[in-house]
Specification:
Elements: H1 8-28, H2 38-53, E1 56-57, E2 75-78, E3 81-83, E4 97-106, E5 109-118, H3 124-141, H4 150-163, E6 167-168, E7 174-176, E8 183-187, E9 204-207, E10 210-212, E11 218-220, E12 227-229, E13 235-237, E14 240-244, E15 249-251
Antiparallel strand pairs: 1-4, 2-4, 3-12, 4-5, 6-10, 7-8, 9-14, 10-13, 11-12, 14-15
The structure holds 2-amino-4-trifluoromethylsulfanyl-butyric acid (MF3) and cobalt (II) ion (CO) (2 copies).
The site of one cobalt (II) ion has 6 residues, from strand 4 and strand 5.
């Protein structure tokens, strides 16, 4: 078990990649409307990454052991889809909620971030799920500082989410990230205070809770990628890439269009 500690130069590279990933979400936001297909959103993001940014879409052909190569450049997970939704012919309609998950590679470094998007006016329940999930991610981020443990992060998220009557997906987690897309450590979104690895300055990882309105259980679709809730309840996810600093945490996946642009945790 080895967790890489990033240098100052590494963090500079991660900050650039993180901002670029967030800027892809800024770019796609106005296209998320009733009538658009998830495949069209994928193409727009792909072209922006490759032709405008000069970044590499990390998901395209990504092939972890036991998987088939991922066929698209972003993930689009709609309604009861939990994560890794594969863009295609699905037409978005008013009332849908969807997660768009973008990972770019810039100068060898990965930036990984996702947001929820509301297609037209959402139901009260869907809006609350998206808001609670966003706040859950932040409860996790705000725990991050040298000396805190991975269990502290998981507990902060789980405690908040379950108090709202929602559930935390267990099978997928955040992850160390850098020149490698998914590396150690695993960042569970549930846990016990004081348990697990202690955080050190220079660690970089994602926090990306997947929260279900119903039961936490999931299943995989026949495409080998798309994860859905077993009970068909709505699911939401938000993701940031963060760095442990000498005094706390820096969120690396911010940009001017991010809903979190003005949320200043680094100043603690
Ligand atoms: N971006 C996802 C994550 O947050 C991983 C997607 S892998 C893919 O870790 F192949 F599905 F794109
Ligand atoms: Co991730
Ligand atoms: Co991601």
């Amino acid at each position: 078990m080895s967790v890489s500690i990033k240098s100052k130069d590494d963090i500079d590279g991660m900050r650039k990649a993180g901002r670029l990933a967030s800027e892809v979400l800024d770019h796609i936001a106005p296209f998320v409307k009733p009538g658009v297909t998830t495949g069209e959103l994928d193409r727009i993001c792909h072209d922006y990454m490759v032709n405008v940014q000069g970044t590499i879409p990390a998901p395209l052909n990504y092939c972890p052991p036991g998987y088939t190569p991922y066929p698209k450049s972003i993930c689009t997970s709609v309604n009861h889809q939990v994560c890794h939704g594969v863009p295609g012919d699905k037409v978005l309609k008013s009332g849908d909620i969807l997660n768009i998950d973008v990972t770019v590679i810039a100068d060898g470094y990965h930036g990984d971030t996702s947001r929820m998007f509301l297609v037209g006016p959402p139901s009260v329940a869907a809006k609350r799920l998206c808001d609670v999930t966003h706040e859950a991610m932040w409860r996790g981020i705000e725990v991050v500082r040298p000396g805190a443990t991975l269990g502290d992060i998981g507990h902060a998220i789980q405690h908040f989410v379950e108090a709202q009557g929602f559930s935390v997906v267990r099978e997928f987690c955040g992850h160390g990230i850098g020149k490698v897309f998914h590396e150690e450590p695993q960042i569970l979104h549930y846990g016990r205070p004081g348990h697990g690895m202690r955080l050190e300055p220079g660690m970089t990882f994602t926090i990306e809770p997947m929260i279900n309105a119903g039961k936490p259980h999931i299943r995989e679709l026949a495409d080998g990628w798309t994860i859905v809730t077993k009970d068909h309840s709505l699911s939401a996810q938000w993701e940031h890439t963060v760095a442990v600093t000498d005094s706390g945490v820096e969120v690396l996946t911010l940009s001017e269009g991010s809903p979190d642009w003005n949320r200043n945790v680094g100043a603690r």
